[in-house]
Specification:
This is Secretin/TonB short N-terminal domain-containing protein. The protein has helices at 2-37, 44-60, 64-74, 88-97, 110-121, 129-134, 152-160, 179-183, 200-214, 218-221, 266-293; strands at 100-109, 125-127, 142-151, 165-170, 173-178, 187-192, 224-227, 242-245, 250-254, 259-264. The protein is of the alpha+beta class. Among the domains are: 88-183, 3-Layer(bab) Sandwich (Phage tail protein beta-alpha-beta fold); 187-288, no CATH class.
């Protein structure tokens, strides 16, 4: 009797083991069939790891395409044209000065003209009424012009220069003022030129080219400006109206920094930037020609 009971217990134990093995086999086959039917399905843990890797990778290389595009578009090695760099607002004004515009004015007051350009280009334009008053002009000077498909800077030259007016980027706005006052609004900029020369003679030649091409004639640079009520020493005596030379405009090469230091107007700085950029493009083109010749 005891032997019979022991045999029954052994049979039940073997039955349980066999049932468990069958259930495990069936579960594995079901899981395998599920993955085969839906290949995109994977564990949540694996998905999290993959997504995190992609996110980190995109963060690391987020600015790379833009940097590469800028380098490819420029066609030359990326280089900061001058220091200190323009502020965000000054960059916007500079960009819009090079943007196309249109102008169709008939006896339109100057203040309305500047307001039109301000709305069209989304920049702040300030009309220096005090400077205009000093030369006998007002903000209501009539403008008669019809232009299209030209840069904003060209349109402003056509409108302002006949009146004896000019524009400058000052205090992060585009200021309309007199030519005389614009010529006295100077900015110091430092231009890296290490890639355009290697010896004192080469730097001197570059400075000479800039002086001849970008700077106004010496007669204009020596123009004098009136100074009212200048007091000399402690005498307390006013000299009335005097004239002082515009001697603060300058250009110098700093060999130890391989840099060009210029203190001049916006117009001069614009010409210098254009000239240096063109020189770099010419040098790159000549380098390519030499490589092809070999």
């Amino acid at each position: 009797m005891q032997w019979f009971l022991k045999r029954n217990h052994l049979f039940v134990l073997l039955l349980c083991i066999s049932t468990g093995w069958v259930l495990m086999t069936v579960s594995a086959e079901v899981a395998q069939n599920t993955r085969a039917g839906n290949p995109d399905a994977s564990s949540e843990a694996d998905l999290d790891i993959v997504e995190q890797d992609v996110f980190v990778s995109s963060q690391k290389h987020q600015s790379t395409p833009q940097t590469q595009k800028q380098t490819a578009d420029s066609g030359i090695k990326s280089i900061q044209l001058f220091y200190p760099p323009l502020t965000k607002h000054a960059q916007t004004i500079q960009r819009e000065l090079n943007a196309e515009t249109k102008a169709d004015f008939s006896d339109t007051p100057l203040t309305e003209v500047t307001g039109f350009f301000q709305n069209q280009h989304g920049i702040n334009i300030f009309l220096d009424a005090l400077a205009l008053e000093q030369v006998g002009l007002t903000a209501k000077e009539p403008v008669n012009v019809s232009l299209s498909g030209i840069k904003l800077m060209s349109a402003l030259d056509i409108i302002l220069r006949p009146m004896g007016l000019d524009y400058v980027i000052d205090q992060e706005v585009l200021k309309i003022t007199t030519i005389e006052k614009a010529n006295r609004t100077l900015t110091v900029r430092i231009y890296p030129i290490a890639d355009l020369g290697s010896s004192p003679e080469e730097f001197a030649a570059l400075e000479n080219v800039i002086r001849n091409i970008c700077l106004p004639p010496s007669s204009m640079r020596q123009k004098t400006y009136p100074v009212d009520d200048l007091v000399i020493g402690d005498s307390g005596l006013s000299t009335g109206k005097l004239s002082v030379p515009d001697s603060s405009r300058s250009i110098s090469i700093v060999p130890q920094c391989q840099a060009l230091v210029v203190n001049d107007t916006d117009r001069v700085h614009f010409k210098i930037s254009e000239l240096l950029n063109q020189l770099r493009q010419v040098r790159k083109a000549q380098t390519s020609l030499k490589s092809e010749a070999k």
